[in-house]
Amino acid sequence: MARTRTLAELRADVRFQADVEREALRHPNTKLTRLINQSIQAFRLMISKSGQPYYLATSASANTVLGTDAYALPTDLVRLFGVDLTHDERTISLSPYMFAERNDYTQEASNSDRGWPVYYRIHTGNNIRLTPIPDGVYAYVFQYLQYGTDLVDDTDTFDGLGGWEDWVVYDSALRVLARDVDSEQYQLVRDLRDKRELEIKGDAPRRARAPGRRVDTMRRRGDAASGAHRWWRR
Description:
32% of the residues lie in helices and 26% in strands. It is of the alpha+beta class.
């Protein structure tokens, strides 16, 4: 459930948590706005690192070029979640490979070093390399975390998704308290932030119930003669 907070409201909450409501000269709005935007970016990275990119994922699509294995990543990419590719009207998830494996998969799709790509790796610069080298034109999609847009105006909003904005407020307040060298208040607010972080990471996977995995029981039992796949969920 959305729970939006304006920049003005976030600043007021930060001043309250840091106990600097009467210190506008030492902690002006411009500085607090910068700290809040830094905390929002840290929050986005924290959630995506936990493996829960469901509401942060952005996509960008393009097509491969025959004989070309290197492609530019989106310029606003912070973290790549995955790459999807369409082959024979079927979408497949490409798998990342390690640098040491860079020559291991070139014959995955055929007896040559070309075929439809099934692996990828981010390499020098803002580029990605697909392997095997595409032998034709295939549509692909990047699923990724993009840079967040900074809050600027007092009415700009941040969606806390039912209270998650507390983490941003606490983290911003810690940045203020670190400058003020208020160790006692810093510890109190840090405990609040860390507690909220544990709650957020615990709540994130439960926003949507994960389906059971489909298992090909025919292959498991070696029942190739049955002529039909039997599936079950676990």
